[in-house]
Design goal:
Elements (H helix, E strand, L loop, with lengths): L3 H10 L2 H12 L6 H50 L6 H9 L2 H48 L1
Helix pairs in contact: 1-3, 2-5, 3-4, 3-5
Length: 149
Amino acid sequence: MTKAPDLLRFYEDLDLPTYHELAQRLASINQNDIVGELSRQAAVYASYAGLLQYAKKEVSFLEIELNQCVTAASIRVRKEYEDKGMKATVAVVETLVSSDESCTEMTRQLATLSEKEGLLRGLLNSLSQRKDCLIQLSSNQRNEMQMHS
């Protein structure tokens, strides 16, 4: 799964069960083909590293939108109170802004995107550990071959 459309589709569908399934597949090593496993490792890592950067960008953009939503809702609440001749306290503004549907929905979306970012970070950590394991297995194979020759 190294083509960009496949990676983006994977990203859109990424959740804990999908992560768990992929993590299991990525962690498995064909000990009969260590050289092949090592040669594919960098490409797989690079694909998911790129996807993690995409996730970080998505989180950053949504954080900006959420800040704008909170600011707009705060201004709206203050204006509504001013129009009634009242002053909105910080606590009132925060309470009403936190109940604003659009801001609440963006907060939920941000939580989902942050989860995806964390899952991708976990995959990269797993791939890094896999690389270390492959290097050790390769070294062990070379040592065994030298002992038998």
